[in-house]
Each structure stands twice: as C-alpha cells, then as structure tokens.
Fold these 3 entries.
Entry 1:
Amino acid sequence: MKQFHAYQQLKAQAESLQQTHLNDLFTQNPERFAQFHVQMPGAMLDFSKQKITEEVLDGLVSMAEEANLQQWIERLLDGDELNHTEGRKAWHTALRDVSNPNPEVAEQWEKMAYIVDELHQKQMRGYSGKAITDVVNIGVGGSDLGPLMVTHALEMQQNSNSPDIHFVSTLDGRQLQSILAKLNPETTLFIVASKSFGTIDTLSLAETAKAWMLSSCGVETSAMRHFIGVSANPQKMTEWGILPQMQLAFWDWVGGRFSLWSSIGLTIAIQMGMDGFKQMLAGAHEVDMHFKNTPFKENIPALIGLLGVWNTNFLDLAGQAILPYDSRLKYFAGYLEQLEMESNGKHTKRNGEFVDYRTCPILWGEVGPNAQHAFYQLLHQGTERVMSDFILFKEGQGSGERATFHQNLNIANCLAQSRAMMVGQESDDPHKHYPGNQVSNTLLMTRVDAHHLGMLVAMYEHKVFTQSVIWNINPFDQWGVELGKKIALSILECIDERNATQLDQSTQGILQQIWEHNA
Ligand code: F6P
C-alpha cells in the first residue's frame, strides 16, 4: 500500500489522531455530524464517530482513485473476469437487475415461480399424493447462510400459504436427525443446494435424507420426487439422482457467498413469494447503481470500505464488530463472517506476491441487545481497539403502546452504546474508568423488509469489493478452505482403517482416546 501517493500523509495523520480523543474531535467541530454523514433513499451512514478529519477522507478517496476503484466497479458490473485465479466472472450483480433481466436469469426465475406457485397452491404432492407442508434446505456456506439469514429476518412477511422451512447444514448429522424426527416423509420436500454439488457436508446429509425417504416410500423414483437440486453443476445433480424437472441452475460466475440472489434463494422465494424475492433483488440493484454512480465521498459502500481500510491499516485496529439492533437480524453477523473473511482473508496480492500489510480484520457480531450482555465489556474496557458497525432501523416491529415502548428502548440502547464507546467515563476508581475513544459507524435504515435487506447485503458486498481493490487481492476465490477438506478425507480413511500411524502425534493421540472410549 506504500505505493499510494496519499500513504505517507495518511500515516502521519493517523499518528497525530492516535493522540486525539474522539470527544475532542466533536468539541472542535460543531458541524461534525453534518460533515460526516451521507445518505441514499432508505439508508443513512453516520461515520462522525470514526477517527477521521476532512484531510483523512480526502486521502482515502485519493487512494481509491489511484487504485482505479471506479474502473474496477464498472468491470464488476459489466461482468469482466475479475476472479482471475479461477478464470471466472464475479457477476452476482447481473442477478438483480429486475427491470432488465439477463435471459438466463429470467428463465430460472420462471422455474422458481412455478415451484413456488405449486407449493403455495398445495399442488406439489409427495409420493402418497399428500401436499408438501415442509421444505428442508440442505446446504452449507453460501448455500445456507444467505437464505437462512433472509428467511429468518423476513419471517413476518411470510406468505400464508408457504410451507414451513427448515435449514440443515452441519455434517455431524444431529441437526438433520432432530428435524427429521418432527417431519412426515410424505409431506417433506428437500432442496439440495450446492454450487459444486460436490461438497461432502451437503452430499452426506442429502444421502441420509434420501435413505430416510426411501425407508418410507420404498421406491427410488418416488423418493426422488421429494428432492429439488440447485447447482451450477447439472451433470453432478443428475448423477446423484435429481430428476431433470427438479433441477434449478445457476452459473460458475456466481460465487457461493454471493449466491442468495440466484436460485439458491429458492427458500426465500418460497417463503415470501417471487414478488418478495424480486423486491430483495431490486433493493440490491439500487445499491449497485448507487455504488457505480455516486462520488466516493457520498458513496455508502465505498465509504464503509475505505473507513475499514483506515482503521485496519492506519489505526491498526484488528477487530470489526457487527451489531444490528433488531432480533430479526440474528444471522446477519454470521452471514458477514463468510462474506468478509472468506473474501478478503487473504495474504496474496493479485499478482501472487505476498502482502506486507494487513487485510481483512477478524469480524464477529451478534444482535446488539444480546451482545451488550456478552462481549461489550471488552469493547468498553478491554485492551483491544475494535471498530463497530451499529445497524439500526427507524421502524420497529409491530404496533401499539408496548411495541413503541420496545422500539424506543431499543433505539436508546443502540445510541447509548455507540455514545458510551465514544465518550467513555472518567472515574477516580480505576475499575469504573472507561477510556471511550472506540470508533463506530451507525447505519440507519428505514425498516427490515425485503427491499432494505437487499440493500444492506449489497452494501456490505461492495464494502468488501472496495477493500479488495485497495488491498489488491482477489476477493472471489477461497483456496484457503481446500486444505482442511483434503486432510479431512485422508483422516476419514485412517478412521475407517483404524490406523493413524502416518498422522502427527496430536491427531493420533486424540483418535486413540476416541477409539478407546468407543471400544
Ligand atoms: O468451503 C467453502 C465453500 O466453497 C464456500 O465458498 C461455499 O459457499 C461452500 O463451500 C459451499 O459450497 P457448495 O455450494 O459448492 O456446496
């Protein structure tokens, strides 16, 4: 990063700002909020509680310009082959242009709409002729986290004819077992969601589900009426036994962690109907256009990205907390863990050289009011300096006096925490001393609905992209997860053969204890 013209100046500004308390920045500038907040319809970013000045912002924007961020954004939206290590486009934005759809995408929407209609009209029937009442999505990573996060967040917008939706992802089998125990095979439909259709987690669970179905209906062709496949690999779906009319497609140019916008989002469409699904796409598309057409100083995703770079590379903060103040966003931080850390958790530049600067920070989070009673202690009085994103909605859930009371309590808590982190508290008692000075963004959005959730996710996608451009890394591959998968297969062989002598001592020792216990 030292090649950027603004780098040395930003370093010097960071050193001086390290000595300045956030409180002083507010005292010195009564216009601070006015100066450091931006908005677009439906969203406002307040970044006045970041340790920045106008000069810092200018430096960050000049870095983005020098890195050709604008050209990169255009290449992303035009579907250039940006994922060069896998020779693919990263064209998830093409999935959400609802008013001008790509024909291949529109064809899949039609197939999805047909399935959704059949389910809502109770016309999709199982092997015994009974209508489907439960849908189980089997998938992991991007084939699980997006649909899980969205269907949980938008439960209140559920179509009254929607079947119940369940998610299974963990290969230990327990989650699947406990869901199956409550379901009737005659009325259960499985969605096997896997971009590669080669992930052992998903396929092992799908095999168990198939065995459960077969043990009830006895005939393979009847059992397979209960399985929809969603994949970018139709051949593997067919080999596994998914019937041609039960297959939904997407393409290698949709990355796993960006796939909720594709037919991987089928559960979202089932829950809300295609209209709701398309509202989510349209919200994301609005952010795509904002990202492309808005100067960086007013560009919400670009700013969130650049502020993250400032905090990571200049102020040396190593943690990023995600704190949504709405219980409906229970799975949002988990979703972002994959989006951000699988994308930018890299140590290699595009050209293969190792980086000599920090990239993606450790990101974690939790619904704010719960996190207050869990890890906020560290944010207030710990030794780590952490950046936080508070996410708040203007409208609450429900109506009536109690609903208003809870909404106000929620707003008060969100604002109290970001303020306490900034202001701190002097005390003669060192145990009660709060240093404050912890930086944060507050993203204020109108409400939790399909449109705004689409916007929110797209903002973070483009934040990640902005950072990848500055860090000069490919955010669209994930080679780092391959090694563990390979080793797991070889350890599984050792377990099957009950011979671990070629493994390291620690692995052998642990296996030995397990074998002795189960002997
Ligand atoms: O192992 C990581 C990963 O490849 C993710 O990127 C992906 O979302 C997940 O596994 C699931 O992959 P698939 O959809 O191909 O089963």
Entry 2:
Amino acid sequence: MLATRRLTAGYGTVPVLFDVDLDVGDGESVAIVGANGAGKSTLVRTICGLLRVMGGEITKDGRAIQSEPPYRRAELGIAVVLEGRHLFDELSLESNLRIAEAQGRKRREARFDFRFDEVLELFPFMKGRMSAPVGVFSGGEQQMVAVARALLLKPELLILDEPSTGLAPKVVREIVGVIQALRKKGMSLLLIEQHIAVAAECSDRAYVLSLGKVVQQLDQHSWHLPSTTDALARAYLGNR
Ligand code: ATP
C-alpha cells in the first residue's frame, strides 16, 4: 500500500527525518510512536505532500508519489487527519462534510466508498446537529468531524496524527471504536500516537521514531507484549 525508502525530509535545508524506511501493507494498521520532537508530524506532512522530500522515495502501490502535489495524493487514496483538525469553524457540520464528499467524488473506483449516511452512522452525535457551526463543537466532536471528513474522501490509507491527544478518556474510547470499525472493514491505517496503550490497541505493528530515525520495528507479537510497551513508554515517551 504505502512505503518509504531512505526518506529524508525537514524544514528549509535542515533535515529532521533521516533515511526512514516504512511499510504499511494492504489492510494493515501500523503505529508510529516516539517522544515529542521525534519527527512524527514531519513524517505525516511529508507523506501527504505538505513538505518536500529531500531524499529517498515514497510509493503508493509501488508507484513513486513524492513529486505529486497533496491533492493528487488524496486522489490516489491517501487521506490525513492532521493535528489541529483544520476544519471550517464558521461553516455548518453539513457544509464541512459536503465539501469533503464533493472532493471524494473524484475517486470513482474507490474500494471504500463511504456514503454520507454510512459515515453518520459511525458518529451518532452528529444526528440533529447538521446545521451547527463546527466551531461550537467540543474538541472530541471536532476530532470526529475531521475523521468523518477524511472518510468521505474514500481513502484506502487513512493517516491519523495524534487522534487522542488532549481528549477525555470517554471520547478516546469512541475514537478507538471508530478506528477498530475501519480496521474490520480492511482499511489501511497509519496511526501516530503518543498514548502507547491506545497505539497498541489500534495497530498490528509499530515503528519507534527517535531523533528522526527509525530505531526499532516491532512485529505483531512483540508490539502486543505488555513488557515491550512498558519498556517503550519508559525509554521514549515518559507515559503509558
Ligand atoms: P510532537 O509530538 O511534539 O508533534 P513530533 O514527533 O511530531 O513531535 P515534529 O513536530 O515532526 O515532531 O518535529 C520534529 C523536529 O522538527 C523538531 O525538532 C521540531 O523542532 C522541528 N520542526 C517542526 N516543525 C518545524 C517547522 N515548521 N520549522 C522548523 N522546524 C520544525
């Protein structure tokens, strides 16, 4: 589905990511964990085309995409929920979603063709609130609007940058529920998550990023051992 090879990227002339090799297989959910400043958001921005590649390659289904602009990568089936959500606060919930739905129409042959009403079923709180401006919604609700919008783009790969950060435990559980539903459908996921327990619950495998480099790869078995996640939390994250 998605691969990076010797991916180097950063800001201006200063690299922040160094030779990152990463794979997300078809239908796989892969987590990236690492401390603040490790380069996780930089990796997300580079994969979706908001940052230029300084070296190496990004491929989607074997095709090099590092020179494609962000909108083309979206058309190729890569959708991203960035940290900070980036919604149209003044516009209604319905307008926010319909804009994404219109963009999603460009993907005629999409494998995951979420209809508007199917997306609403995943997020029951939206019912009856279609005309409210999304700026009045809580942080958790806004996060869910951002995920709903990404799904209406009909992605094959959904990238979530810290979906649980700053949210109450009850809301985190709702987001975990949505992620698990998407995994069941067979969607590929790349999940950036500081909350290591949430990351382990929602993914098959993981990469540990430290100072812009992949320092560990964890297969399905080791990633789900409590001793591994405890050790990782102590070594890199200072939390669980
Ligand atoms: P966090 O969880 O805090 O977002 P992160 O792992 O996502 O951390 P990045 O935001 O990717 O880390 O930052 C990696 C490095 O890149 C840091 O050293 C940061 O200071 C630097 N950096 C991030 N954004 C910029 C920018 N716009 N210009 C210059 N340097 C930046």
Entry 3:
Amino acid sequence: KLVETSKRLAAYQAVKDYLLPEYTRVGIGSGSTVVYVVEAIAALGPAVTSKMAFYPTGSQSEELIEAAGLDLQYISKLPAGRQLDVAFDGADEVDDDLNLIKGGGACLWQEKIVAASAKQFVCVADFRKLSPSLGTAWKKGIPIEVLPMAAPRVLDELQRMGSQNPRIRPGLPGKAGAIVTDNGLWIIDAPFAPLLLSKGTEPGDGNNGVWTVDALADALIKIPGVAEIGLFY
Ligand code: DER
C-alpha cells in the first residue's frame, strides 16, 4: 500500500511540476509507475491534453496512452530536427548521480530512444529505487537487450568482464523460453558489483572488481550482439 501510494504521489507531482500546458509532444515510458503518470495526465482533462501528442516506448506504453484516450503518435514520425518537450519514465534504481538502471520491464531500448529525443527526461521513482550506487538495491543485474543468436557469446564476454552469473531472462508463465522484447530480441540480466558513481575516484575499469557507470556502459555497448543497455547516465 505504501509503495503504491508513493508511486502515485511521485507520478502526480512529476506531472504537476514538469508537464507544462504549452507542451505539445510528450514521451511515455513503461512499467507500473508510468501507469500513474498517464492517470495524472488524463486527469488534466481534454482542455489541456487535446493539444498534446503522446509517444510510446513499447506495447504497454501504447496501450496506456490509447486506454486514456490520449493522442497516440510515434517517434518514427517525429519531423526531422524536432524533439519531444518532455518524456516521463520509471526506473529500477537511481544513484546519487541520477544514473539509472532501467529495463526491469524489458522496454529499455525504445525507452532510451524516446528519452534521448526529449528536451527534458523526467524519471519517476519511489523511495525503493534510491541507492548509494547502482547494483546495491537492484540486484537482478543490468538489463541488456541482445540479438538472440549472439546471446551465448555475450554471456561469455560478461563473465569475462566480471559479471556475477549473467543470464538470459526467462519468459513468464504462458511463454516458454526467453522473454521476447517489443523489438523481437532477448534480455540478458548481468549483475555487476556495486557500480561507482560516474565520478568514481577509483580506476573503475573492472580490474579491481568495480566499475564506474560510464566505464561499464562504454564496455557493454561495444560487445557484438548487444543492441542497447539498461544504464541511463
Ligand atoms: O523497464 C523499465 O525501465 C521500467 O521503467 C521499469 O523498470 C520501471 O518499472 P516500475 O515503475 O514498475 O518499477
């Protein structure tokens, strides 16, 4: 109950503070906190929302926008040179530097594209998500979207980089085999020792078992077969 109330309060506050009435293009992330973001936006009423277009980050996000009766548009149709005014999304973990682990909902690739297409990215996270360094609260690992045929090679490389027991995310009941993302790919969850803040003072290049967020992100994205990683930094 406390968690749901916290998510809802955070979402309504974020919309109040960051969705300005003059905005016309709004990104909508994925997950359960974003459900409250859309609820808060819809509560503004058509007088405000009818002037806005809403851009999804996957099938769940699309459904939320449509179910709320909001105008559904797509980032693929955004005119060249234009940006979204703001994008709202959740996170799995947030460190003191506002680095994020995202991808708990397996929507990280489109989420990162939409976030990067917005002038302002608003992350809505309840008290559970705050942690001194990434990997201390969210222990399931960094979500990494991969081409299925490369998954074994990526797992090998993650082991070599010091990930503790990286694994392909299994499907939920009703889906035999691996989770398949909205993009037709798989997710590998790769736990690493707690990541230092991106301004980490130690040489966080993995040799001493710890990484700075930016050093790890740079290393992960280079692994052949990796499409995108669930580190926003
Ligand atoms: O997959 C994601 O990155 C989502 O934003 C997700 O991690 C947040 O989920 P929650 O709002 O249900 O905690």
